[in-house]
Write a structure and sequence with these properties.
Elements (H helix, E strand, L loop, with lengths): L2 E3 L8 E4 L2 E11 L7 E8 L5 E6 L4 E4 L3 E11 L2 E6 L5 E5 L15 E7 L2 E6 L3 E9 L13 E5 L4 E4 L8 E5 L5 E5 L1
Antiparallel strand pairs: 1-6, 2-3, 2-6, 3-4, 4-5, 7-8, 7-10, 8-9, 10-11, 12-13, 12-15, 13-14, 15-16
Length: about 190
């Protein structure tokens, strides 16, 4: 691990700071007219998911954290544990549901995701940008409805409820955006 200062910060860098692992989401070098320059940053705690704004001064030093990302396939749920398999070594790991609760809204068996680890500790499950999910429950579609209508709620096969256009019916396969908590993109 390398020790770096505030001038070495860049977006996407992972650092050890305040006894936790943080990813730099944003940073901005500020040079006030009076006083020393500083860096205003937005950091995401990879253990808790919390996002904090942190100001670094010229003397601040921290370690870079070497994280690994591995492509893994979601196999099945075993009670409160969810089992994933490494696509290259076929090793399996179990992750508690509370650690990946946001990802569970989109996970289907056999889906490939990226698992982020630090020294063997599982930090995050990174989903694809979009997933295809089937509508299991919604009101009947309205003939002649357009995508610009008001929309209606639809329950998907993972239990996720999203707003969809009025023309969507039960059994339709939809493309859902995973970035913003789940939103309708299009029919598959």
């Amino acid at each position: 691990m390398a020790t770096i200062g505030m001038n070495d910060l860049k977006t996407g860098l992972t650092i050890l700071y305040n006894q936790s692992i943080w990813r730099v989401l944003e940073f901005q070098h500020v040079k006030p007219g009076k006083g020393a320059a500083f860096v205003r940053s937005k950091l995401k705690n990879l253990r808790t998911g919390a996002v904090n704004e942190v100001t670094f001064r010229p003397g601040d030093k921290f370690e870079t954290a070497s994280i690994e990302q591995t492509d893994m396939q979601y196999l099945y749920a075993d009670g409160d544990q969810h089992v994933f398999m490494d696509n290259e070594t076929y090793d399996q790991v179990s992750i508690p549901a509370d650690k990946i609760s946001d990802a569970l809204k989109f996970l289907l068996e056999n889906m490939t995701v990226k698992i982020t680890t630090y020294e063997g500790e599982i930090l995050d499950v990174e989903l694809p940008k979009t997933v295809e999910l089937t509508v299991t429950e919604t009101q009947p579609g309205i003939k002649g409805a357009t995508a610009n209508g008001g929309g209606k709620p639809a329950t998907l096969e993972t239990g996720l409820v999203i707003t969809v256009p009025d023309f969507v019916n039960e059994g339709d396969k939809l493309v859902v955006n995973t970035d913003n908590g789940g939103s309708y993109t299009s029919r598959a």
